[in-house]
Amino acid sequence: MQNFDTKQFTEQFESMFFGPARAYAALSVDYTEKLVNAQLDASKAYTDTGLAQLRSLMNVKDAEGLRTYMEGQQKVAKDLTERLKGDAEKVVSLQQDFVQQSQKLTEDNVKQATETATKAAK
């Protein structure tokens, strides 16, 4: 009769299941944190811009002030468009990085699982 090695079983279970699950969870939490921070930064920038525009509008007292305000709107629209483009690029970059790291993590885990299975079979 063969003795059952609980230590070896625990190590194999850790390396094949719990370790990879923790690594993926850590990667997911990091990604979520970066994404939330990017969204908070964007929200603050858009809110600040909107409030600044409201303040400018409230300072309009005559036709000349209205004309100046309306001319400024073109610059604001251009700035917001650039900001939106940059924010979208940041999110896409975060997603691509997450996918690449997930793929690498999966490849490493498959390699490790194969090595563990090979050792266990011997």
Task: Write up this protein.
Pfam families: Phasin_2. This protein has 122 residues and is mainly α. 92% of the residues lie in helices and 0% in strands. It is built from 2 helices and no strands. The protein has helices spanning 6-58, 63-121. Helix 1 (6-58) packs antiparallel against helix 2. The radius of gyration is 27 Å and the shape is rod-shaped. The two termini are 17 Å apart. The relative contact order is 0.11.
Architecture blueprint of SSEs:
Blueprint: H1 6-58, H2 63-121
Helix pairs in contact: 1-2
Question: Features of this protein?
Answer:
2 helices; Phasin family protein; Phasin
Shape: rod-shaped
For the sheet with most strands, the description reads: none
- What's the order of the H and E elements? HH
Strand content: under 5%
- Mean pLDDT, all residues: 88
Counting DSSP E segments of at least 2 residues, the number of strands comes to 0
Helix fraction, binned, reads over 70%
Poorly predicted ranges (pLDDT <50, ≥5 residues)? none
Gyration radius over CA: 27 Å
Q: What is the count of helical runs?
A: 2
Structural class: mainly alpha
Oligomerization state of this entry? single chain
N→C terminal distance: 17 Å
